[in-house]
Amino acid sequence: MKKWKIGLLARVAIAIILGILSGLFFPTWALRIFLTFNGLFSNFLDFIVPLIIVGLIAPGIAELGKGAGKMLGTTMALAYGSTVLTGFFTLLACKLVYPILLDGAETAMTMASPAENGLSAGEQLVPYFTLDFSPLFGVMPALVLAFVLGLGLTIINNGDVLKQALLGFREIVNKTISGVIIPLLPLFIFGIFMKMAAEGHVVQVMGVFVKIVILIFILTVILLVFQFSVAGLVARRNPFTMLRTMLTAYVTALGTQSSAATIPVTLRQTISLGIDPRIAGSVIPLCATVHLSGSMLKITACALAVMIMMNIPVDPAVFVGFIFLLAITMIAAPGVPGGAIMAAIGVLQSVLGFDPEATGLMISLYIAMDSFGTACNVTGDGAIAVIVDKMYA
Predict the structure, then answer these.
(1) DSSP letters along 54-82, please?
(2) Which segments of the chain have a pLDDT < 50?
(3) What is the pLDDT of residue 114?
């Protein structure tokens, strides 16, 4: 008998619903139990994020460098440029739309009274205890170390032992993400929404969630039309015909939530566009790792929304740097649901100043749209392949 498995998105949705109900009806002592778990999990995330950065980025850069020829170098440049351009497009669109769409959201987090939502006067929602296990090093040192190791391994001739060690460390990091962090995320999100419900913030937050989900879906459609329009201009082909061919990969990615798992379908549909199979066979697997325009769109839009909701100052210059750094950081994101946001946590915390509550909201928003971002990523890979084929076929 085939075992029925609940997907991550469904688990997160269930966690949000149960968290809201629990926050409205649980006694304070029960609420504090889950807040204690959330405090411990947040500290664990702070500890593991620098290790995730080193474990994913260093071997990822090393592997890409070893196989980089002129065509693959062009592919990487196009993919990185597309991802960064998507970040700027999203930032501009959200700066124009959010003042209307999220009007009042920045004050909603402080308006409600806990006493109106089941808490007695004087009661505080605080953990029973906390454990402080500091990271071995900070996020920025981890990024610098990852770049030094990864780039260094692309230029030395006797780095096989170090590379194998990094590949083994990456496997440990991937297992930690897929086997520990991702399974516990629904419980973490449960605690966040439980606390918001108890404090009277949840109605406004859920209203914001629905608005952002709709906006991001619209932005992904606009992005894909733009990407294939550019590819169509370069190759002198109908962009909508090409986009229709790639819809099979889009639908497949909605189910798998993984760019890596969708590679066979993406490759088949790209070849159906008339792309040289040799070029498609090189470009598509590489783009599954380095072309993350859909993930960039989601993270940029969600980060800006969370900053507005949490009254975190938004400095456009800082956000520009965040986009460039995020595009690099996500390159080594593991091919599991939620992998990109886990790789991005360090940048969100170090550059934008996200605290554990902001990080939790960010994760919830991101995972709610994980399928759409992944589908946008893999579909856009076809546009990159069309341009590369025109240049090198």
Answers:
(1) HHHHHHHHHHHHHT--HHHHHHHHHHHHH
(2) 1-2, 67-68, 110-118, 121-122
(3) 45
Q: How far is CA 118 from CA 15, 122, 186, in A?
A: 20, 12, 24
Residue 250 confidence (pLDDT): 86
Which tokens belong to 315? 């400095």
Query: Whats the size of the chain, residue-wise?
Result: 393
Residue 315 contacts by C-beta under 8 Å, 6 or more apart in sequence? none
Q: In the prediction, which pLDDT does 92 show?
A: 93
Which pLDDT value is given to residue 106? Answer: 59
User: pTM for this structure?
Assistant: 0.72
Q: Which of 33-48 are b and which e, b meaning 16 or more Cβ less than 10 Å from the residue's Cβ?
A: ebbbebbbbbbbbbeb
pLDDT for residue 383: 92
Q: Which DSSP string corresponds to 218-279?
A: HHHHHHHHHHHHHHHHHHTS-HHHHHHHHHHHHHHHHHH--TTTTHHHHHHHHHHTT--HHH
DSSP for 147-172, please give it. Answer: HHHHHHHHH-SS-HHHHHHHHHHHHH
CATH code of domain 8-392: 1.10.3860
Structure tokens at 224: 């894909």
Distance CA 306, CA 276 (A): 43
Distance separating alpha carbons of residues 112 and 119, to the nearest angstrom: 12
Tell me the backbone φ, ψ of residue 387, rounded to 5 degrees: -65, -45
